[in-house]
Amino acid sequence: MNYLMRRLATFPLVLLGVSILVFVAIRMVPGDSITAMLGTEAGLLTPAQRDSLAAYFGIDQPWFVQYWRWIGGILQGNFGVSVTYGRPVLDVILERFPLTLELALLSMVIALAVGMPAGIYAATHNEKRSDLGVRIVAMIGQSTPSFVLGLLIIYTLSAGFGVLPAMGEFAPLWQDPLRNLSQLILPAITLGFAFAASVTRISRSAMLDVLSDDYVRTARSKGASARSVIWRHALPNALIPVVTLSGIEFGYLLGGAVIVEQIYALPGLGRMVLDAILQRDYALVQGAVLFIAFNFMIVNLLVDLAYVALDPRIRLGES
Amino acid sequence: MRILRAIFGHGSGRIGGVIVGVYLVIAVLGLLGLTPHNPITQFRIDRLHAPNGAYWMGTDLFGRDVASRLMAGIGQSFTVAFFSVAFATLAGTVLGLAAAWLGRRWDGVVMRIMDVLLAFPAILLALLIVTVAGPGTWTSVVAIGIVYTPIFTRVVRGPALSLKAREFVDAARTFGSSSSYIVTRHLLLNLVAPLTVQVTLALAWALLTEAGLSFLGLGTQPPAASLGLMLSDSRNLMETAPWLMIFPGLTIMISILGFNLLGDALRDILDPRMRRVPA
Questions:
Q1: Which residues 6+ apart lie within 8 Å of B63 measured at CB?
Q2: Taking CB atoms and an 8 Å limit, are B212 and A259 in contact across chains?
Q3: How far are the Cα atoms of A8, A314, B124 from residue A311, in angstroms, in the given order?
Q4: Dihedral sign computed on CA atoms, order B105, B108, B113, B114
Q5: For residue B242, which of A144, A140, A157 has the smallest C-alpha distance?
Q6: Which of B129, B132, B231 sits opposite A151 (nearest CB)?
Q7: C-alpha angle B36/B37/B41, rounded to 5°?
Q8: Do A29 and B132 touch (CB under 8 A)?
């Protein structure tokens, strides 16, 4: 409990740092958001019109006033108005977030469903040919960038089977689950492939470590069946590194998968941030980065708490 | 010499070493302009040629030789990867050593700043930096360097803290060695092994991030060749000219594979305490 409190206490500090960094960085991007928003039409604005637009979005004030207003607003749940969308920033983020969350979850499910059995299989067939096969595939998987795999999948589907991935308007899960799944399954495989490779490698090495432990040998000598040794005795302890890796990877995926979203034309968080940066949509970039950083920290904290659940010997916060 | 022998005595080290070696040679040739054709010359009459004797990997939409562009692109990607990892290693080592050695307030400040950087997804932080400074080779170097600095800081700080508490450091202090001597001689030298492993693996990530940035149009700018950009350009011509996608895709993949294999081997060889079961 003490540990949880101490960890939570660092959150505001790190988020403050993130907020300052993103606030300063986005303002250092050359050009201004009104020109970026209106394009060539910005040239038609009279100085008075330009001033009133700047005042509307609050970007006519000095930096520190803008920052102060922004932070003050956030504390009241107001993240500001997006210049590009003309809507509250939080609304825009929350509209994109379900897709990103679903994609991250699907990728993790694929990674665990493929990676863990493969890792356990390789560990129990250590140094055999099948183990070598799994290790080679996992190494190749870990070295395949998502954009290379994404393009290869699209190419194979279109050249080999004459089909294209389901694109077009994105269907949320609660409106059209089938269409939603058909749109997300390929991006999820694309992201899940390298993720599965990492899970395979880490579950294999964790399992091998545990299988050589004394208590596993004791279980074996007591006459426990091979199946029981693996599933009941070894696996729970081998899970800890797998949970760490999956948690961290999941935390990153919650920040949006810019490139995969770009390849499959998905309106996720990553592409939104990229567009917002390019459009100099200050409020949206700031809000989104803060949101992503917060999620990342929460996931990391949950991973730490999961250790304790998995291994009662671990006491967090004690050295 | 001994380390080379050890790498080539290690299964994955041998494969990784050969891959990285071949890529290094190609990168140097590409940077020196020793390519079969000029990578930006447009042979308009030979547009979108499939691989053949004259153009081993075919030509692109503008009639440029894909093989020459790949060589130049490898040179470009490796330049960015090496300099950005050098930046991250230097900055991370200095910060990590300072945090560990000075302790208390310094440690807190440095590590909180690193927490802030780590809370950003890598590619978004790089994107933000590149947009601020304008895309280009050296911007990519700085952006990727900053993104990976926190990792090096952590890799250095942890072991440095435990080394600091060891008897030989106390002994050195008793003999009157200066702080700078202890930090550089006793701490840094003992950190060479974990750093070498981290550098090799970071080179793989840096190549990946560079290709990602170029893929999004925020890395190397055309007409210069870059692997990510070539891959991105290939999307619209995927069905008519698949070689435009396959060659750059495989080139990126194999280069990352090479560094990953080498990194794994180095971890086994250099760090016997951390030696895990080979994965």
A1: B42, B43, B44, B45, B46, B47, B48, B49
A2: yes
A3: 22, 6, 34
A4: positive
A5: A157
A6: B231
A7: 165
A8: yes
Cβ separation of A145 and B252 shorter than 8 Å? yes
The reply to whether residue A259 touches residue B132, judged by beta carbons under 8 angstroms, is no
**CA atoms within 13 A of residue A174's CA, in its CB half-sphere:** 1
| Chain A 105-144, residues with CB within 8 Å of chain B CB atoms | 135, 138-140, 142-144
For residue B25, what are its two tokens?
A: 């040679």
* Dihedral sign of CA atoms A99, A252, A93, B126 in order: negative
CB contact A258 to B (< 8 Å): yes
* pLDDT at residue number A314: 65
Q: Is the peptide bond before B223 cis (omega within 30 degrees of 0)?
A: yes
Most confident listed range (A2-16, A51-65, B218-232): B218-232
Given a cut of 90, whether residue A19 has pLDDT beyond it is yes
B residues 166-205 lying closer than 8 A (beta carbon) to A: 204
- Nearest CA to A149 out of B213, B203, B58, B253 is that of B253
Q: What digits encode the pLDDT tens for the residues B146-155?
A: 999 999 999 9
Residues linked to residue B64 through DSSP beta bridges, in sequence order: none
**Tens digits of residue pLDDT in A253-308:** 998 889 999 999 999 999 999 999 888 888 999 999 999 999 999 998 898 888 77
Q: What is the mean pLDDT of residues B58-71?
A: 92
Give the phi and the psi of residue B65 in degrees, each rounded to 5.
-75, 120
Q: How far is A84 from chain B (nearest CA, A)?
A: 18
Cβ neighbours of A144 in B, within 8 Å? 253, 256
Q: Do A201 and B131 touch (CB under 8 A)?
A: no
ipTM of the complex: 0.87
Distance from CA of A29 to the nearest CA of B (A): 4
Q: Which residues of B touch A154 (CB under 8 A)?
A: 238
Whether the pTM exceeds 0.90: the reply is no
In single-letter form, the type of residue at position A97 comes to F
Give the pLDDT confidence of B171-181 residue by residue, as tens digits.
888 888 888 88
Residue of B nearest to A277 (CA): B128
| Alpha carbon distance B194, B97 (integer Å) | 14
Query: Which residues of chain A lie closer than 8 angstroms to B105, CB-CB?
Result: none
What Cα–Cα distance (Å) separates residue A122 from each residue in A113, A237, B42, B264? Answer: 15, 17, 50, 18
The whole-angstrom distance between B126's CA and the closest CA on chain A is 11
Instruction: With beta carbons under 8 A apart, name residues in chain B contacting A143.
Output: 204, 253-254, 256-257, 260
Question: What's the CA gap between B209 and B142, in Å, rounded?
Answer: 12
